[in-house]
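Section 5.1 Outputs to date
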Amino acid sequence: MSRILIVIMALLVFVFGALVGFKLNAGGGSHFETQKKMTEAYGLIKNFYVDEVNGDSLESAGIQGMAEFLDPHSIYLGPEKVSYDQAEFKGNFDGIGIEFDVINDTLMVITPLSGGPSAAVGILSGDRIIKIDSVSAVGITGPEVLKKLRGARGTKVRLKVLRPLSGKIFDFLVTRGKISTSSIDAAFMLENRVGYIRLSRFIATTAVEFRRALAQLKKEGMVRLVIDLRGNPGGFLDQAVEVADEFLSNGQLIVYTKSRKGGVEDERFIAKSGDGYEKGDVIVLVDKGSASASEILAGALQDNHRAVVVGELTFGKGLVQRQFSLSDSSAIRLTVARYYTPSGRQIQRVYRKGVAGREHYYQDAMKSILPQKLFTHPDSLVYVKNSDVVVYKTSSLPLMVKLLPVETIKGDSKLSALKDAGGIIPDFWVNNRVYSDFYQELYQSGFFDEIARKILDDPRSQVQGFRNSLERFIVNYLEEGDIEALVMKKCESKKIAFNRVAFIRDRKYIARAVKSKIAHQLFGSEGQIRFLVRYADPAVKIAATVPAKSQP
């Protein structure tokens, strides 16, 4: 480990030289000696290590290791990753235009993007791509799919495609073209004049997309808006600020940053006179996958009493990164400041530096903090309780916990755990039902995707009558009559012990999960979201009915 750290230290100065070196070391003489020692160590490893060492690989590994030594979000990006990220966050890239999934080692077309190259040549939802440029695609991974199918506009790719319903194999020659990506997975009206927008990330086009969706829902008579940020990992700060500005009045603080040395990294983002939706009810849905820019948006609207936040405690990612380009088109993304909500809450949760601290940090991210274990009298805070969900009204906690004096926090282990967790505390904390171990094993094994595919590939299945209408599918398709037999047979093939007691207990949830996967495979992500939101998402039902905060 010490040898790796020496290389790590050597690399940063070796690549950045004095530019970054002076920022990391205060004293000039000390900096010179450190740079000299690191360069010497790099030379010794290159010349005397038992195996031949590739200099470029050593440099990349060194920078990556040094970034990992700092905090959980400082990272090194190789040239290929930089290029990929830029394409994603600019909102477009060149490719063949399909939404895909890899299910049981098989590359399946979920949906060809409307107007894209694949749709133009006749590729259909449910098609299996079995060869790409004469090379088998069986066992391909998601990143490999992107590498093979994306490419320069105008270049061509040959695909051999199996169409399961007919059993025929087709050859397609697809010319890559510009593919526009979107950060909005779905935008539509629910019942009772409630609008719904699902934001999956914040890219360069998010604010424009959001304003367009907002305007359309207003035309349709929306009086309450649900913004779904669950699973949204963040993205561009300026886009989150612009979206927040649609709901806030001139002069209201959205977010501010603090750095170690001050200066350009310390910023305050103030709302202008937005006219998007300053008066209607707003509900923001979050979960533990909502991070960074998502937390900035939720925190800004919550602190300004402009929205009610519903869901789980968010991820707690409040570090500001800047990306520094290196000479070989790689980059290092460094944390330069921290985010704070308008009331002064620090979004970032507690972390330990170093590789071990990073691993611990991401392991903790997967754990759910249970509200009933944090409150002294949790039953007094219950807002809704049924077989699917328990909702606690926790609207008094966010400011109370995050702004309490340190001495008070230290004396209470529950408050301390909540403060260290960072993130945005919801006003209505949704605690979903716990599924059986059997259901969770099915879910984690990709079982539901495979059952859905089997049903869709069966010409005798009743689902064949709903292929052309999402609305009819959502309302009228229930489940296959032999769903238990299908589950038992698939369990046998996957070597999963069939638990009949658990199956009976969770039958409706299993059928619902299969139906959602069928919706995805037939109608894409938005089709799946429409089904889940209307029939299988208690958090959305809560969001559509909770009392909204009035403006101050």
